[in-house]
Amino acid sequence: MKKIMNEPNQIVTEMLDGFVAAKPGKVKRIPDTTVVTRKDSPIQNKVGIVSGGGSGHEPAHAGYIGKGMLDAAVAGEVFTSPTPDQVLEAIKAVDGGAGVLLVIKNYTGDVMNFDMAAELAEAEGIDVAQVVVNDDVAIDDVDGRRGVAGTVFVHKIAGAKAEAGASLEEVKNAAEKVIANVRSMGVALSPCVMPASGKPSFELGDDEMEVGIGIHGEPGTERKTLGTADEIAVELTNHILEDLPEAEEIAVMVNGMGATPEMELNLVNRKVQEILQEKGVKTYKTFVGEYMTSLEMAGCSVTLLNLDDELKELLDSPSDAPALRV
Amino acid sequence: MKKIMNEPNQIVTEMLDGFVAAKPGKVKRIPDTTVVTRKDSPIQNKVGIVSGGGSGHEPAHAGYIGKGMLDAAVAGEVFTSPTPDQVLEAIKAVDGGAGVLLVIKNYTGDVMNFDMAAELAEAEGIDVAQVVVNDDVAIDDVDGRRGVAGTVFVHKIAGAKAEAGASLEEVKNAAEKVIANVRSMGVALSPCVMPASGKPSFELGDDEMEVGIGIHGEPGTERKTLGTADEIAVELTNHILEDLPEAEEIAVMVNGMGATPEMELNLVNRKVQEILQEKGVKTYKTFVGEYMTSLEMAGCSVTLLNLDDELKELLDSPSDAPALRV
Amino acid sequence: MTFTVEQAINWLTKSNEKIQKNKDYLSELDQAIGDGDHGINMARGFDEVVKKLDGNDYEQVADVLKDAAMTLMSKVGGASGPLFGTAFLKISMAVKGEEAVTFGTFVKALEDAVAGVKQRGKAEEGEKTMIDVWSPMVERMKAADDFDASVIRDNAKSSMEATKDIVATKGRAAYLKERSKGHLDPGSVSSYYIFEALAESLEEGA
Amino acid sequence: MTFTVEQAINWLTKSNEKIQKNKDYLSELDQAIGDGDHGINMARGFDEVVKKLDGNDYEQVADVLKDAAMTLMSKVGGASGPLFGTAFLKISMAVKGEEAVTFGTFVKALEDAVAGVKQRGKAEEGEKTMIDVWSPMVERMKAADDFDASVIRDNAKSSMEATKDIVATKGRAAYLKERSKGHLDPGSVSSYYIFEALAESLEEGA
Ligand SMILES: Nc1ncnc2c1ncn2[C@@H]1O[C@H](COP(=O)(O)OP(=O)(O)O)[C@@H](O)[C@H]1O
Ligand SMILES: Nc1ncnc2c1ncn2[C@@H]1O[C@H](COP(=O)(O)OP(=O)(O)O)[C@@H](O)[C@H]1O
Ligand SMILES: [Mg+2]
Ligand SMILES: [Mg+2]
Ligand SMILES: [Mg+2]
Ligand SMILES: [Mg+2]
Question: Which atom of ligand 1 is nearest to the CA of C81?
Fold first, then answer.
């Protein structure tokens, strides 16, 4: 394992310190927690948006804190959902009286911990709504689908809706609309290494790739011979489009898994756009970069989001979150 | 070699296509060249800023195209300076009558090719000024110092100055002020692989790092035992501060070399900020991310820029370049 | 035979020892069909449990187990935090009021724990989760009329081993579908350690 | 003996063959003390040169070399593009007007090439660059009174080999300081191929 780090068991707290130190005017950390919030939290009468999950997905989740996106992010240990008490701290810190939406990725652990936090918050009289993102089409069973890079679009849309003054129900509905219309799929060229164990998450031959990976170094759903950029783009895009039949006008995200140079992501984007054009699908907006990662995994995912007028407007509205400036 | 790519000899042109396809409203590619410019180029009476160099440093250089930063970027083959005719195309495309500044990194090839382009442009009656960035303190001999991540600050400041309506000479002076006040140094944990050769740029043991690396996979100036995040931050920051004695209020950039997870960069930033605070140096603004990379090299560099009131104002002025939004 | 405060503390202490000793093994199991953190998670949690219990004076088994439950829930995270936390919380609730817990109460408490875990995890037996160790244990104990360390140990062991042949339909291993077969379920293995620790604490007596 | 259009074309064609054949070797040399692209750069450039010359009718050596120079400058990039481009451009300018170039003109042309490369690269002899092959070649030819293939070949070879012991002070290898010693300079090795090709084109005659 080659990582720039100090003690593995301090990695999350040190990372959060480093993150906050880079943006002292914009974010703050709630002392003795792994919760980072907007500096100006709570904002009176605005629905608060809280997301989070295990660490190792940077810039998710703290990078999406900002006007127009998240109010708070809760960081768990590496690849481990944060605990209910931490999520509760976040909820309390951002509640400005209009309620709080939790954006949860569909993993057993995340769903349970956030749900318990919601129960605790409700007991303290805070209105809490939850949405569970499950955009990963690599999993056939829709109930079991993981939440991956599509989560970033949920942050964006829900955040914009909340910023516009919508009610908790309206914000939740906008988030649900994204979830119903977003699909992703990814491949890995190399595994990632948990800082605490120092072991690669799987072994891959020099000419192999894992198709249908999640964002925790889990093995994918299939192992294949390493394809070209074009072949990878075709495989991912077609798989997604099969699941998104009504696609007309869409947003595209080509996401790096942590160690993928932007050059390679642009190659994939080139082909994705070509495929969409051929199929008569119009691209409204494209995002190429590292948005939802898996430590130092090499590989990429493609995410497509079906848009209507409401979603377009919300996608375009400003965000000053460092990882998604609009 | 494991890369997401198609034919290695098409990699630059395909990457540019993918890049432009992601931002159709903002940038355009000059047909049959490797030049990307702002969509609205040339801008009348604004000094044009052209940068460029070999490919493989993404998001440099095209990612810095935008209002408030570059007007055009010229991409060479991977790690190879672009040729004079390409640079000339960029100069012609962005000249709005107020002249053009070339931002060049201090490598023999870049200096020669850009200089030849400047001669050709002058022959066509365009005012051209050049600045050569040499921020890498790993090299003792100041004349031989490479241009690395500090170049991004030169783009930012020169771009802001030009946007404010300054003359070519004033823009050049602002750029020179940055160059006089910016210093960088980097380490590598793993080599990078040229797409065309498929071979790693050097071999490193599991517990080794290269200190004093450039951005082309060149070996560093020294090989050492892999340090912790804190040790790396201390080594780089102290080396830079020795060369930047007058440091009072500064901008910090912690830059990933291409395959470094943001988590690790935040750990380094944490310690850099601690060191600066101990030394009584005030951090005005911090940038953590991948700004000037070396394909899929793992590692990081630290850049410090001494600020005065003019530089602070220019650093703060807006930029809509995708890789450095302000 | 009853189950005392000392035994409860002993149970958790021994559970912690086994989990610490097998931390890497548990993570490796999770590496194969999950995300490789199960050993790290459980070790972090039980280390905190033991720290929490240390030096405290407890009058009731319920209080010991409640502290353990709350600590697991706030220190583990992931899937195992809420699930093991819920298990111990349910046991704690069911044994509340008894200074020394009778066999009948204990079995009823385990039954509540299983129900709680099933509800929390929206899972049933046979899905390749810790439930596949806990649920058969309750069935087996319901058929007995007193604590029996070797029964507990054997039952946990065979249930744990049986998870190898199951195709996962819950948790991360479910993503692998058929490829999850042939691997032990990590949460079942740590559950086995917990029941082994229970057996030992029973053998050592109060 | 004179140097003809056919020989000039032959020179460049053979240069290309050698460079293509040794592309990986040249890149490996550059890997050791530079950025590993020298073979790729030269191969890309000379491939384009040969394509450019192909099928064209040339009346003068100068036109052949000018096309080569312009192609190298616009297709190679990096350090070697402007430097090899400048070298051929200077030769071309100096032999302009002569359909068959005399030895005296050719030597003078090479002298101009060296001056041009030195000026472009702001470098002198002894800095571990291609100049360490080109400059001794001019000195040696100035001492002769006609083309001599074996002299050219031997001189280029020994100069190229001598770059191994030099500590680089220009180009990327300079970053390595003492560590640059013990490695051949890639640009000197490709220069050696170019002079070897020149020698062969002289031997094969017009
Ligand atoms: N839905 C569920 N119901 C019951 N137990 C589950 C469920 N999902 C996972 N588990 C148990 O949790 C274990 C994994 O725990 P752990 O690795 O710590 O959490 P995570 O899966 O969040 O990384 C599995 O081996 C399994 O026994
Ligand atoms: N300043 C210079 N003057 C003369 N030759 C130089 C100079 N710098 C580099 N070279 C030559 O160029 C060669 C490297 O070329 P190449 O690898 O193609 O370019 P780059 O260094 O830009 O990657 C060196 O081996 C050396 O012979
Ligand atoms: Mg986990
Ligand atoms: Mg080069
Ligand atoms: Mg796990
Ligand atoms: Mg080179």
Answer: 18
